[in-house]
Amino acid sequence: GAGVSQSPSNKVTEKGKDVELRCDPISGHTALYWYRQRLGQGLEFLIYFQGNSAPDKSGLPSDRFSAERTGESVSTLTIQRTQQEDSAVYLCASSTGQGIYNEQFFGPGTRLTVL
Amino acid sequence: GQQVMQIPQYQHVQEGEDFTTYCNSSTTLSNIQWYKQRPGGHPVFLIQLVKSGEVKKQKRLTFQFGEAKKNSSLHITATQTTDVGTYFCAGSSGGSNYKLTFGKGTLLTVNP
Prior knowledge:
- Chain A is mainly β.
- Chain A has strands at residues 5-7, 10-13, 19-24, 31-37, 44-50, 53-56, 65-69, 75-79, 88-95, 105-106, 110-114.
- Chain A starts with a strand and ends with a strand.
- Chain B is 0% helix and 54% strand.
């Protein structure tokens, strides 16, 4: 595809429900990242994939958060038993994962609202 | 862990005035990147600096990487209303060029 896509664009859920957020990176990009951005705040790193493995999961806020990537392509971020403080925009980015110059291309994000 | 601090948090200028945002890292960086996020949008890559003391220009934007590779700045000359947005710096270190630590950003507003 032309860029990073994410779905859904908006998700409203009730407290306690599970949600799945999807990211389709740019074809051929081996590195994939998930960030969380609360309203008016900076980007909070969640997890990084190189291929299908996640060498750095240090940013996942709790064990309610998990992510996987298959086929060195699509990634899903799952939040179990959602809480109101999970409300934020979840951004996915991808990069080539090679070389020194390694800009990240961001998707439009999924706005999650937990009622 | 690595921390990247960015100041100021907010900056309001009159159109035509200059603007600078500063970024400081707690550790030596292997490279630093700058992103711009328009209101309601997603971050968009502006530039990456790799070399100590490096200076790069993009039209009215000037980016600098400090000699010690622990700080960076973005300067905009003669701001325009199209410059409105949040500017983030993001650094990587420790042998990984791929994991970025983002600063909290500087929100620039421009009064026409």
